[in-house]
Structure formats: structure tokens, C-alpha cells
Amino acid sequence: MPPPRNCLRSRSLTNTVIFSPSQSASGQAFDTALSICGLLLDGGHLTAAMSNEICNVTTQANRGGSSQPLEQVLMDWVSLGERFNWDQLTAFAGQIQSIATLHRLADAARNAVEKLPVLFAAVRLSGQPDAVADYLAKFPDTGLPDLGASLRYGAGGVRELALRQQRFYDSNLERQLTAF
């Protein structure tokens, strides 16, 4: 069964953990989340690896397994959908290779508040969402400001910082020379 259709078949799940079932009076959130996921899959906006992982957790839930892994993915899509418009969401999600990276980046987006544009730019410019997520996990307090500072050096600066997994160093000497 094609992934979008398999995803929409999940509307029949009744033993959900995070969302209310689709058939319930409060099932609109579940339907919305499934619609976002289905549109991303149908539009080819996700990597093959991500599509396969979503297909696997969806199939597992539709065959009577736990629906929680699918619902967590759906919650991530809803969370990102609240923060990005459709074009931004597809651009942000289009390079993510795994559900684990999606979870970490969605969590980072929820906590980013005014630094959300930095997260978006870091993911897009680096082309390495896994490395950005790893960087933010390694440096939870300074990760976003460091990535923001690396944006001054373009895509290569962001990519290098994320791949090296080292704190950003801003030389005071450089500022003094510039001021001089």
C-alpha cells in the first residue's frame, strides 16, 4: 500500500496514546497530524529513509502494534507545522533522514522560541540535520547561539561547526583589529 494511503488508514486506530482517536469528538488533532504527514509523503517532500521509517511505524500501528511511535512522529509534524508555513516545513523536513533526528529537531524547535530562524537556517545551510541535532544535544545551552554566530561564515561555517561538534570560538583579537 502506498505510504500516504497507509498513513490515512491509521484513522481507524482506536487505542491511541498521545492523540484522541479520529472517531472521537476530539479527534481533529489526530486527523490534522495524519493529513500533514500524508501530504509530506504524497508530495515527495521527505527523504526515502524518512518515508520508509514512517511507513514502518504506520504499518506496525495499523497491524495492532503500539501506535505511540507513529503518534510521536505525528506530534513532531504538528509541532513543526505550528512554527513553519508549508514551504518552510517542506524545506526543513526535506533533508531529515530519520525519525530520531526529527524528534530532536522538533524538540529544539519547540524550545528555540526567538532563535527558530537560526535553527531553520542551520539545518538548511549545513545540509546535515543529524549533525545539527547532535550539536544541539551536545551543547544545549550554547548550541543555538553558536550556530547563529557561525551563520556569519555562510553554509560552510555552519556545516563545519556542526560536523566538528566543537563550541564556536569568537576571537576578541578579531574584534579589536576590526575596531582598530
Task: Break the fold down into its secondary structure elements and pairings.
Layout: H1 3-9, H2 28-42, H3 48-62, H4 68-83, H5 86-93, H6 99-112, H7 116-126, H8 129-138, H9 143-150, H10 154-164, H11 172-179
Helix pairs in contact: 1-2, 1-3, 2-4, 3-4, 4-6, 6-8, 8-10, 9-10
Can you walk through the features of this model?
There is one protein chain. The chain is mainly alpha-helical and 180 residues long. The chain has two domains: 1-84, no CATH class; 95-171, no CATH class. It is built from eleven helices and no strands. Helix 8 crosses helix 10 (154-164). The longest helix has 16 residues, at 68-83. The protein is elongated, with a radius of gyration of 19 Å. The N and C termini lie far apart (66 Å). The model has no long low-confidence stretch (mean pLDDT 88).
